[in-house]
Structures are given as structure tokens and as C-alpha cells.
Amino acid sequence: MAVVKVSPKFQVVIPQSIREALGIEPGQQVQALQYLDRIEYIPLKRAKAMRGFLQGIDTSVPRDEDRA
Predict the structure, then answer these.
(1) Which backbone phi and psi does 31 adopt, to 5 degrees?
(2) 42 belongs to a structural domain
(3) What is the DSSP letter of 63?
(4) What is the pTM of this model?
(5) d(CA 2, CA 15)
(6) Which of 36, 35, 41 is nearest to 11 (CA)?
(7) CA distances from 22 to 4, 9, 15 (A)
């Protein structure tokens, strides 16, 4: 687990290992959320970059007989 320090301007640096694992690049936007007593950063990706990420997912679901 990495520990980061908040600067006097309330900035934090995302550790290199996390940046590399998530593919975060300079200038990329992240969404900051407060969840209970913690802060979560979620990298935002363009819709074009998300194309095909569900490829191969099983879309078959059991349906009620009147919905067939």
C-alpha cells in the first residue's frame, strides 16, 4: 500500500505503480468521489476507448415464460 502526502495546495501524487497499472497518463482526468470516510479517484476514459470492452460477455439470461 502506498502512502501519499497532501501538499500545501491540497495536491497528491498518484504513485507510479498505480499509474502504470491503471494506464493513467499526464493530463488525463479522474473523477474524485467521497465514499463514507475515504476519497476515491476513478480514471475517466473516452467512450471511444471503451469500445468492445464487453466483447465475449454472456448475454443469455433466464426470462419469464411470458417474456420470451
Answers:
(1) -95, 130
(2) yes
(3) -
(4) 0.61
(5) 7
(6) 41
(7) 17, 25, 11
